[in-house]
């Protein structure tokens, strides 16, 4: 979950953010390195590095699945202290082939992160991810705990059936019945008992126009609920919406390629790793119960419930808290 709609992440309730102190985003920065990593299975992964080449490494895991990374994601880290690694996960952004779900599973993504670490010769890194990015960070850390120095998670999604049922089975729709009606309207009544499957049939119909139409509908539902202000969701370009929606739906049809409850079951493998969890109090996409369950009993975790905030990275208080977390990790007052 969580598209890369962060175009407004540099705007707070006090106005436009500039600089990198007091929880404000840092100024825009350009990569010092861009590359494509050929994975040998038909996929090539786009990777970029920003900041200090000898700084502490942080790997940014975008949401979706299918969201892609964006320039604003570079701005949560002091470029004088951090070696910032961003990449587009399989099938999205600048990675190729676009919108492809072939050889595209959670295990493949963990393998891609391994290849990035090896290709860049990275020491143990901080994993920084929100929503699906938090899911992937947890799965990666549990698979490779020796490669992770810390976790920074936002809007926790654990890939469980209950979470998918909440968002695609009518739970969130009880709070937004008008928007829910719009989401279910294109689906015949006899298919509405499983909207993920119903959308899957149409997102993978082989008819480009139909796939795009249903992709825009799929994405509109998530965008509308991502922020505390549901009127500020914006509109996605059709090609982006098609890639995002196909990839996200593909993962959800397959329950994120995780065993049910796996990320909580295997938390014991990473309990020695420090983690900060930043969660919006009014997150309608990934309700706070998942963050609470993840943090409960994890002595090295720090759960921060952010008031008056929803799900999106662009939520002003969420963005400010994440910057403060990364400043603290870098030893900056």
End-to-end distance, in Å? Answer: 32 Å
**Based on helices, strands and strand pairing, what is the structural class?**
alpha/beta
- So what's the CATH class of the largest domain? Alpha Beta
Order of helical and strand elements: EEEEEEHEHEHHHHHHEHEH
**Helical run tally:** 10
Q: Write down the Rg.
A: 19 Å
Mean pLDDT: 92
Number of strands: 10
Low-pLDDT sequence parts:
4-21
As for the CATH topology of the largest domain, it is Rossmann fold
Query: Rough shape?
Result: globular
Number of domains: 2
Oligomer designation:
single chain
Explain what this protein looks like in three dimensions.
- The protein has 10 helices and 10 strands.
- β1 (11-12) and β2 (15-16) form a beta hairpin.
- The strands form 2 sheets. The protein has an 8-stranded mixed beta sheet, sandwiched between helices.
- The chain starts with 10 loop residues before the first strand and ends with a helix.
- It is globular.
- The longest helix is centred in the middle third of the chain and has 19 residues, at 208-226.
- The chain has 2 domains: 11-160 and 256-329, Rossmann fold, CATH 3.40.50.1820; 162-255, no CATH class.
- The protein has helices at residues 106-120, 132-143, 161-168, 177-184, 195-203, 208-226, 238-253, 262-265, 289-295, 316-329, and strands at residues 11-12, 15-16, 33-38, 44-51, 56-61, 82-87, 125-130, 148-154, 275-280, 301-306.
- It has 333 residues and is α/β, with parallel strands linked by helices.
């Amino acid at each position: 979950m969580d598209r890369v709609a962060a175009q407004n992440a540099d705007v707070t309730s006090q106005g436009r953010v500039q600089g990198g102190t007091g929880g404000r985003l840092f100024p825009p920065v350009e990569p010092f390195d861009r590359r494509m990593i050929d994975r040998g299975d038909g996929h090539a992964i786009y990777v970029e590095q920003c900041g200090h080449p000898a700084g502490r490494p942080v790997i940014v895991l975008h949401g979706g699945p299918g969201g892609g990374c964006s320039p604003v994601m570079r701005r949560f880290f002091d470029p004088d202290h951090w070696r910032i690694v961003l990449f587009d996960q399989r099938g999205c952004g600048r990675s190729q082939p676009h919108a492809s779900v072939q050889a595209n599973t959670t295990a493949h993504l963990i393998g891609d992160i391994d290849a990035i670490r090896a290709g860049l010769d990275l020491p143990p890194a901080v994993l920084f991810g929100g929503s699906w990015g938090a899911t992937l960070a947890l799965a990666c850390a549990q698979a490779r705990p020796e490669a992770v120095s810390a976790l920074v998670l936002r809007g926790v999604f654990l890939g469980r059936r209950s979470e998918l049922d909440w968002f695609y089975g009518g739970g969130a729709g009880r709070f937004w019945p008008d928007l829910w009606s719009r989401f279910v309207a294109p689906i015949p009544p006899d298919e509405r008992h499983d909207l993920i499957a119903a959308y899957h049939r149409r997102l993978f119909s082989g008819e480009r126009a139909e796939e795009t139409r249903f992709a825009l509908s799929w994405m509109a539902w998530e965008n509308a609920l991502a922020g505390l202000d549901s009127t500020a969701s914006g509109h996605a370009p059709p090609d982006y919406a098609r890639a995002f929606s196909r990839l996200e739906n593909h993962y959800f049809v397959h329950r994120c390629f995780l065993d049910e409850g796996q990320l909580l079951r295997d938390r014991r493998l990473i309990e020695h790793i420090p983690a900060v969890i930043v969660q919006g109090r009014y997150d309608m996409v990934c309700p706070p119960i998942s963050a609470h369950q993840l943090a409960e009993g994890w002595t090295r975790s720090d759960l921060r419930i952010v008031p008056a905030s929803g799900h999106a990275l662009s939520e002003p208080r969420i963005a400010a808290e994440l910057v403060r977390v990364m400043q603290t990790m870098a030893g900056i007052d």
